Amino acid sequence: MTKSSNLNILLSPSSTNLSEFVITYKKPLTSKQILKKSIKNTSKNYSNIPVNLKGLYRETLKEDNKYIYLNEAVVNIHYSKYSQNKLDRKIWEDWYYNDSYAFEFKGGWFTEFPTHFNTKQDKAKLIEARTSENWSQFNFDNPINGGPLSLTSKDFIKYRYDFLNPNNFNKYIYNLKENEFVNNHSCYVLHFYPNETNRKMVFDMGKKMKRSIYVGKIYIEMESFAVVKMEYQLAKNVDFGFYKYHVPLNDIVTVDYQKYKSIWHLKKITRTKIRSQKTKTMKKRALYQSQQELIITEIVTDSVIQFNKNETWKHTKLTTLRNREVPYNSGFWKGYEKINYPILSEKIKYDLEIKTPLEKQFNNRFKQKENLPIPTAKKIDFAFDYPSEKLADNYQWFADTTKQTELYNYLEKENEFADNYIMPSKNYQRNYFNSLNNFYPKDTSEIKHKYNKGNFKYDEDSLGNLILYEYEDSVSRTAIFNSTKFKDNRNNCYITSLKPYHNSIGITYTNNGGLTYNLILQTKGNTSVIDSIYNVYSYEWFNDSTLLYTKSNTLKRSDKLFQRNLITKNDSLLRFETDLTFDISLSKTKNYIVSTIESKDESEIYLIKKGENNPSLQLLKERQVGITYAIKEFDNHVYMITNKDAINNKILLLTDNNSWKEIIPHEKDVLIVDFVITKNFFVLKTYRNSYLEIKYKEKSESKWQNIDFKDKVFNASFQSIKEDNIKIYYSNPRTPSFQYKFDLSNGVLTKTKTTKIKRGINPPYFKTERIWTKSKDGKKIPITLTKSVYPKKNHKGLILKAYGAYGNYPTGNDFSSEDAILLNDGFTIAYAHIRGSITMGNQWYMDGKLLNKENSFNDYISCAEYLIKKKFTTPDQLIGYGNSAGGLIMGTVINRRPELFNTIILDHPYLDVLTTMMNDSLPLTTDEYKEWGNPKDETVYNYIKNYSPYQNIKKQEYPNLLFIASSNDYQTPVWQIAKYVAKLREYNTGTNSILFKTDIGSGHIGNTSGKEWIKNLSFQYAYIYGNIFK
Question: How far apart are the first and last CA of the chain?
């Protein structure tokens, strides 16, 4: 009604005499006036003292409209008074940095976004909890992040968040559209939505949201102006920037209030999210609906209880109920259901009880399942038609791309079996996880990189995703890369290179753990992408508008070199390599971009001079069979390290007349692996008789001197040079990494940076020694042995590790936090420096490859025998470990000498050499010919067949075995590991355990997200611990 409206009043006859009848107009309240009154009356309408809210916290998850799990907890919440206007940043810091629930946390698809916070006084206590089984048909097992405090933080009238923050009123449009009777009270209904939506989201979790992002309704009682209900959801048309992939299809929050003793209190909070997710087989998408409910059943205003620190259920970014291991208390829940239990819908019961009653599910959760069947794989008749024979392989179907769903189903059964088997060792798993997770203080474990006076740091963002920041100073920073861009694979995303150039920066990243990367180019200090290129192997800046890069083909060979015009986005092909055993890579020196075309044992070098108008390839060294070259530049002079007429390398200088002059000659017993040249000195990194040496001499002198690091076994690398000073990264098995500064002019060695570790581990009390044994052919094989002088436990558990391929540098010479924890627990860690590595020089590598590969296996077996003979360990306490090509060593050894070991860990192992090397349509096969040989040659075929683990499984008793794999690994494909495990189960005559654990979605290096890599290590070592001490 308005002032100018006509007013008609109809009166019925009456005998009462009226002397006067006056009707006046009262202007109705506007939306914002109602809102302001509501805010003003908060302290009158709501509790101005702390209270205890007792109730039920419930979580459900639907998959394509069927419930797949239920989680419930009875909670008591200490709830602070209304209102709380300030957000304490320490609350955010505790939410972000607190790792209390890191071991329990798994996945993060239903993350809290956006996250709101309570106060330090708001605390929750978990009384009892129960969780059902997961009935997902796609093995979707992500929990719902958060807990009861994540819901109470949605009480915006208390915390003054978002659309109920007076500072944001001008950023929303509020309309009074109707009145309704809500919660037994007459209410104004205010509709609201964002005033602007085109600005990109700037999101600081430590501050209150300044953007308008919600749309919804607020129900305000007419008499008291109390908010009695609110409903809101994320607006559809807001630009969330980096965070857009966290925004679900729908995210609806409903908050209801109830009146108790004339004061309004929380009654119920519900949050519902809907997301679409690819299934693990990536064949289809499924629709998931999560719902969180907090139902208050009792309000306590007198004798309010505050909880102590140890009994609170914290609100952190890793908080979940689903994986909280609380023993099921059947008696409590039966009593609770009779009195206070909020009704559970029949639909939930029906969907979840199709196979098993909920009571039985609750009781069996977190318990080891008895008589869980050992996974078995079907056999399909198949034979390879090779030139020399037909070779039967009834498990080759695992590699059939049309049977990927069956493969994934098998992998999930193996995962379930492995997880169930390890349950009795859960405590050790948890303890190891906590030790490794807390090994380094946070400020020393962050990775920082400085380039061209820029300062960049990798970190996680507040939602747990990898992020790269550029720092202007110690405080101001810009997020220039965030893995939230990768909707389906961000949990395995990591940055592989960072190359600034003037005002631009190039970033390569991978989200599958492979050897090819995606490249994005950005303006420094800006998040906008200039350009992006996929399947990049290497790249270098030529100038501001030109980029050079090499690209991998479908077989993961880097066979093309391109010039990219960043203005037109056009590519020009500079080089195409036709030899299937060679790859093209790029690197840079001060004045040149270096293009190296190389195979496993030879190389060809081209130089591209910087500063010219267009890049042109200048041949520096053409390829020769068995000859390798590598280029470095110091003081505008080009140097080359090569094995030409020098099996352990020599160093040459390119003179002004373009001829090569030898400046560091070859030494038969000394392997040169790296060098730097300062103003007046030559400095070499070498190996002599398995020991690393850093030695130096003046350019005008002939005598070399060694830098004395006091340790015989160590690892070191050059970091930077200035005049005649060099900085050296240093580590040994007893000492966490640190940095030395060495003054070549006076021989003074100064420690400049150290790595701190937390208390409880005592590396100074570790003892390292190098011992020797003889292999089958009489060769002396070095073994690096580290153990604690004062172990917590005295036992002879020994882990013998090996790799032995591709001319790898000696392993076990530097510090390992994961080894340090095992050493502290009494284990001995040993590294077998078998042939195939360069521990004893390049000939050592040559003697462990191609038709000499048998030496690697014999060396490892000899090391194991020696350690047992000399009583360092026993067969009951010896553990073998090999990763990738090291897994090949383990796979062959268990076929030949299974009785030597209690347990062997095969981590992403290479187990079917014959099948993969016979198939040149697989990634990397042709690249590998010079390492293993081409089995199309009959001699090579027979040689590989004699050791390839899969073809040599036989009827015998095998030790305890754990196989680790990743579903997206193309270097050691999961199907060849699945084949091996399936056949092994068929042939094994013993009763020792065989476990097979696959990470779905990651690549060759495993799961790099969050804390998952620590969990994977914890699983491995819990398995070892359980086998040694069962």
Answer: 84
Whether 587 and 594 have beta carbons less than 8 Å apart is answered as yes
Separation of alpha carbons 933 and 952, rounded Å: 19
pLDDT bin (cut points 50, 70, 90) of residue 450 is very low
CATH number for 519:
2.130.10.120
Q: What is the rounded CA–CA span in Å between residue 498 and residue 647?
A: 34
Confidence at residue 792, expressed as pLDDT on a 0 to 100 scale: 67
Q: What is the pLDDT of residue 600?
A: 92
Of the candidates 794, 865, 864, 863, the one whose C-alpha atom is nearest the C-alpha of residue 823 is: 794
Give CA–CA dist 864/858, Å, rounded: 10
Give the range of the structural domain holding residue 217, as residue numbers without chain letter: 31-364
Are 541 and 547 contacting, i.e. CB atoms less than 8 angstroms apart?
yes
pLDDT digits (tens, 9 = 90+) for 928-942: 999 999 999 999 999
For residue 946, CA distances in Å to 97, 301, 576, 650, 882 come to: 52, 78, 37, 37, 20
Under the banding of pLDDT at 50, 70 and 90, the label for residue 508 is confident
What pTM value is reported for the model?
Answer: 0.87
903-907 and 960-966 as β-strands: parallel, antiparallel, unpaired? parallel
pLDDT tens-digit series, residues 316-342: 888 999 989 999 999 999 999 998 899
Chosen domain end from 588, 604, 625: 588
Rounded CA separation 1015/1020 (Å): 9
Q: Do 31 and 98 form a contact (C-beta atoms < 8 A)?
A: no
- Tell me the per-residue pLDDT of 627-670, one tens digit each, with 9 for 90 and over: 999 999 999 999 999 999 999 999 999 998 889 999 999 999 99
CA angle 493/494/497 to nearest 5° reads 140
CA 4, distance to chain mean position in Å, is: 68
